[in-house]
Amino acid sequence: MIRNHIISYLIILLLLPITSLAAIYAPILEQIKPGTITIIGESHKKIESVELFQSLALDAIKHYQCVVIALEIASDQQTILDAVMQGRASVNEITLWPPLDHPPYRRMIETFAELKQQGQCIKVVGIDSGVNNDIDRDQWMASRLAEQGRNAPILVLLGALHTLKRVNWTVRTGRPSVAEILVTRGFSVKTFPQRWIPDNCAGNEYRRSRFVNPDSPAALTILNDSMMSLINAKPHKSVTGVIDGLVVWECDKLPRDDLPHFDGL
User: What is the mean pLDDT of the chain?
Assistant: First the structure.
C-alpha cells in the first residue's frame, strides 16, 4: 500500500508545475537537457540519493520527449533490465553490485519501468563494466555513455568519485574518472556529487538537503575534505573545472508529525 502511494505520488509530479525541488535545485535541473550528460554522484545505499535522483528524472521526463537514465548496473544485465522496463521480468531478477543493492534502488527501477509502460519515453541503461570485464570501469562507463547520442538528456547516477572532471594525482596509478574521460572526448558534462555531513544523524533527526554553489568557499572545503581526502590526490585550489556544484545532506530535527521527510519532496 505504501509503495503504491509513493508511485502514485511520483506520477502525479509529472502533471504538477515546478515544485520547491525545482526551485532548490534549479542549477541541476537547468543542465538536464539534450546535448549534456548530467552526473549525480552518491554514496551507495542512501535512500535520500534515490529520492533525489527520481525527482530529477521525473522533472526531465516532464520537460522532454525522451530521457536516457544511466545507472551503475553492469552492461551484461541490459537484456534483463530491458525486460523489466517492458514488464516482462521482475526487478528482483537484475543482478546488482552488492555495495549498491538495496530495496529503494530496486523500487526506483520499478518506478521507471511503470512510467515507461504508461507511455513515457524512458531509456534505462546499465553502464558498469561487470566483474568479468578487464576494461577499466571508468573507461567502460564513459564509452557506454558516449554511445547514447546527444538527442536526449542523459541523467546518470554514479558513485561520487566518478564525477570528478579533474584530479591532481600524487601516484602514477591514478586514472581519470568517467566525467574526466567524457570531457576529454569533447562531451558537455555537468557533475553534482552528493555528500552526507556528518555520516550519521541522531535518532531524532532526519536529512535535509541544500545545494552548494561551486563558487562558494564552502564548496571547495567540502570537495577537499570529503572527496579528495579519500584518494591519493592533492587538494584542489578551486572547484572550477572539477565539479559543477554539490548537494549536501545535513542533519535536522524531525518534523512535528514525526513522518520521514526529504527536503524539497
Answer: 89
Cβ neighbours for 135, distance < 8 A, ≥ 6 positions apart: 129
Asked whether the CA dihedral 18, 20, 21, 24 is positive or negative, the reply is: positive
Q: Residue 27 — very low, low, confident or very high, per pLDDT cuts 50/70/90? A: very high
For cell 537484456, what's the residue? 79
* Distance in angstroms (rounded) separating the CA atoms of residues 181 and 117: 34
CA contacts within 13 A on the Cβ side of 58 = 27
Beta-ladder partners of 66: 121
Q: Which residues contact 20 (CB under 8 A, 6 or more apart)?
A: 264
CATH of the domain at 207: 3.40.50
Query: Which among 223, 214, 232 has a CA at the least distance from the CA of 195?
Result: 223
Cα dihedral 215, 216, 217, 220, rounded to 10, equals -60
Is residue 18 domain-resident? no
- For residues 152, 155, 158, 164, the Cα torsion angle rounded to the nearest 10 degrees is 90
200 lies in which domain range? 2-13+23-253
Grid cell 527501477 is found at: 109
| pTM listed for this prediction | 0.88
- Per-residue confidence at 16, pLDDT binned at 50, 70, 90? very low
